[in-house]
Sequence to fold (203 residues):
Amino acid sequence: MSCWMPGCPGLSMCRGLSTFPITCLERAKDLKTRLGILLHKPELGHRIRTSSKLQLGSRWRDSSQEVLEWRESFDQLLKSKNGVTAFHTFLKTEFSEENLDFWLACEDFKKTRSKTKLASKANRIYEEFVQTEAPREVNIDHETREITRKNLSGATSSCFNEAQAKTRTLMEKDSYPRFLKSASYQDMTKQATSRGTSKRSHT
Fold:
């Protein structure tokens, strides 16, 4: 056997660990530790992925009925966190997610109690979503846009009510029906229905 680590003289002559130079043993220990880490990384990754899949599966079982309720009304969809997430993903495919983001921003805005924060939040929302040529301008008429602009002078929790209502109506009449007909939602309802059928057959 030849020496496989630099700086370890006469390793081939060693008959026991007690005769190994200290530096050689330290290097061997360090190498073993590093190899152990590398060898266990894929296994760790596999455990994490498996755990995530199990948790996701559990969540889906619990929300099967919820998925079917989304088609009952737009309100039912908006009440569901999973529903909002699924609808947002769909809107991204149509490049119109700013409508839902604006609606959600307005919902959060209404919960603000500090007058100082209320004013600063109102300006941020207006600049991002409402003003003409805003980075994420929502589709509302000029009159509603102007009313909202004037409301900013004395910002209250209701200053976006009209613009939010117009955006909600647009989503309900336009995007929501297309979401219900989309392949992604149809797949979800099929899975939810099959899980419900399977659950009943086992009871």
